[in-house]
Design brief:
The chain is an alpha+beta fold. It has helices at about 5-15, 75-80, 140, 215-220, 285-290, 325-330, 335-345, 355-365, 370-380, 385-400, 405-415, 420-430, 440-445, 455-460, 465-485, 490-500, and strands spanning about 20-25, 30-40, 40-45, 50-55, 60-65, 70-75, 85-95, 95-105, 110, 115, 120-125, 135, 145-150, 155-160, 175-185, 190-195, 200-205, 215, 235-240, 245-260, 260-270, 285, 295-300, 305-310.
Amino acid sequence: MPTSFLRGALALALSALLSSNTFAADKAACQYVQIGQLPLRYLGEWFHPAVDGFINGKPAPMMVDTGSNKTWLTNQLAERLDLRQRATGNIVKGVGGETRLYSARVDDFQVGPTHTGKRYFEVIGETGMTPEFDALVGADFLFQADVEISLAEKAVRFFRPTNCSGDSYLAYWGDAVEVPFTGTFFESRNPTFTVELNGVKLNAIIDSGASRSFVFIGGARKAGVNTDSAGVVKVPGASGIGSETLAQWRTVFKTLSIGGEVIRDAELNISADPNTGRQDADLLLGVDFLRSHRVLFAMDQRRLYISYLGGDIFSRDSVAIEPWLQKEADQGNPNAQYALATKYLAGSGAAHDAAAAAVWMDKAAHQGHPRAAYQVGTWMLHSGKSAESAALFRNVLSKHPDEHRAALFLFLAQLQGGDSAGAARDLAAHFADDKQRNWPAPVADFYLGRIDAAQLVALAGKKQANTRFFTCDAKLLVSELAGAQGDKDKAKTLADAWRAECGRPAPNI
């Protein structure tokens, strides 16, 4: 098996992690021994819990995903490390449908002190988004011991009970509701359990790979809610393993009960049922739930211990800025800083404050956050601050080499600054290995004089999906080139035409 090392790896890892932390679960002989701990951090714009690992000696962010039955590698990691992949003939089913699985050998896979040596791993063929992680640490690794997830402390801890019975109380930190397991999710070790939504019993799991908690349509209907019910609104779809996007809605349910905890006015997403595979759970409790709860999976007891820690339980776009998000931004998380900037700009969760938005956007941009850098870097470019703009985009590329748009704007900044030779050299080098010439590589060809503007727009119009988006993007980037070349009149004419056709404010050129 490609991941067979996991059957024995955790025992070795936890021996290496062995600590002296032993908790008396009862006054009797039961001892609850903490045998390991891994630090967590929030990863990416969806703030998934992650650990920093290494693959073949290279840093590799890994999402901690209780909803994944196995530990997988991403295709982008395999390509970046030039791992040789072979077809397995197997598929994996996820939120985005089915995708093929490949196999690749790594020289070493490290999580904390765990080193595998040379092993084969399965590689996910397609995802509905560009992953911000290189691997998923799944249930096969996590649930070989009792596992505590404490996002408030940014830690995942592993325990072994010694001389404990089914009656022993293992929530060593204090009060907790106890929820029995009812089964397992698919072929995973991740346990299912019963919750009540609007008083109706549903099967649920805790899925740390889901940024928001959601109920599948079938479960929502059992609870008396349909997608066309009053108060239900359409929201952007969900993506994950597989190339498709799953339609989603959002509404407020009267009650959600988990053990003895009753959550009133629970705002949950409603997700379309996947077209593939069977569903062993109606409801998934995601990262928004975990941020406000301390959770212990007691595997031998087949029981969950859950403690509410305070605060808003589910993510709400209209509420005040959540303390955890403010803390992340204050501590330098660029994704949190960008999120704060957008909230202040939109007046979402806080009063509209352009000055505060600018401060947080600038902080995120100077840490290499791609979208923040585009906001700040293009403003600098349009203000004639070419050197500052170029520095921002170089920083983005140093942290995110696959941010091809940053290479385009670096070219524009260099060109505006008078370094046309360096601009052409750097842009050509960035796209040199792109044999498929996927978007925005044709824009680079235009900037380098290989095609003209009409040919660029024609290529954009040949896109089978999102033709209007690519056509509008092509015309915008043509206007950006005119501005960088110093032809303000041409740039303004092109930008005004772009605005008239594409229906968004033209850039301030």
